[in-house]
Amino acid sequence: MPSDQLPPDNQEQAVDDSCTPTSNKVVQLNTPDASHRKPRDTQACSSELPAKDNVVNLFTGASVEDEQSARIVRIFGETNGARMLYATLDQPERLVAVPILCWALLEDGTVSGMVPWLDEVLPCYEIEQKYSISWEGYYCGIAEDFFFDPPAEIVAQLSIAARFNGKLLRAQQTEGAVAVADTDDWHIVQEIPDPIGTHALLLNEQSDAMVLTSVISWTLDDYGRMHGMLADDTNIEKLPVLPGDNCLFCAEEDTDFRCFFQRDIAEQIRLQNPETMQAIEQLFGN
Length: 286
What we know:
Number of strands: 17
Structural class: alpha+beta
Oligomer: single chain
Helix content: 10-25%
Strand content: 25-35%
Low-confidence stretches: 1-61, 173-180
Order of helices and strands: EEHEEEEEEHEEHHEEEEEEEHH
Strand order of the largest sheet: 1-2-5-4-9-10
């Protein structure tokens, strides 16, 4: 069974082409029974956690505690086709499924699925907070299972890895936001291949040139941030391009980078689907 389909009793055979262009072209799903749901409680590891305080970063206005909790310690690629489920405010009775890129252990001990959303990669619960959607948990097509807590084996893998790799993160200081903004001052501590067909949209406003290019891999840097890595066609030495190749660079280093798209939406853009192109024009305001 494809990972974006639910069992017949929970599935509606309708494709939503009006969903946000950064989400996958997905099947809209009927909301599962209440038995599938429970209060959202993100699972935490038992690894050592940092001390928390009330210090505010003068450069960002955010508390240092919040910045620390958002930093990623370790990532683990999703290999079973698990998807994030969410509902929009105008259609709360239906669910939309979006492929999960990976699972991440955050510095506060939380484990969450990670999804490319617009120009960044975010934990599922943070997408809910920032974009006014209702996150409804996860769905795995292979197991035909709804769940809210990350799988135990994922939590165990991340917890064990964090014991050996957690100290690779730079020490967080109140002036850390300034250093993080300097993209020349970071180093890769982990890299995984992209498993879901993510594409980056590059848009040159002066020439109106629009380019879609595949995201080859995702890196975690020593500030606890993720970067989508693209291939510089002029520097490719071998094919196929693989994670770690010298021709790769992070998407945000290109001034034409606008956002990430998942595979089905990227294909609609290539086919110049009218509804998709109209949504992109609305997204970028021209």
